[in-house]
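If your schedule permits, I should be very grateful for your opinion on a structural question. What I wish to show you is a protein chain and, alongside it, a tokenised description of its three-dimensional fold. Would you kindly read the sequence against the tokens and tell me how you understand this chain to fold? Here, with my thanks, is the record as I have it:

===
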Amino acid sequence: MSKMAEMAQTIEELRTAAASINAAADWLYQQFSGDDIEAQATEAPTKKEPKPELKLEDVRAVLAEKSRAGHTTEVRALLKKYGAAKLSETDPANYEALMKDAEVIGNGS
């Protein structure tokens, strides 16, 4: 596994851990906030707003910036990782993961 892939995986694991800790803190707050248990039971569950779907243009802008910054080789390696020779061949379902991987390009130089 390359250093970039390891870094991306570590970052994703940290984000997941942070989200889990935040959820646990929210649960503990609700349990010990002193609110009436019946009031908690009758509250409507909160709805998560759907994330805006990434578009080809969004991903292209980020990858183009990385490429202009001298990281063309890394950008090509990312595309290859997701089974494409060019961005337009990349499955849109992979855009979010591709963007997360692209975030670390150039941050360790």
User: Anything to note?
Assistant: The CA atoms of residues 20 and 33 lie 20 Å apart. The two ends are 18 Å apart (CA to CA). Residues 3-32 form the longest helix (30 residues).
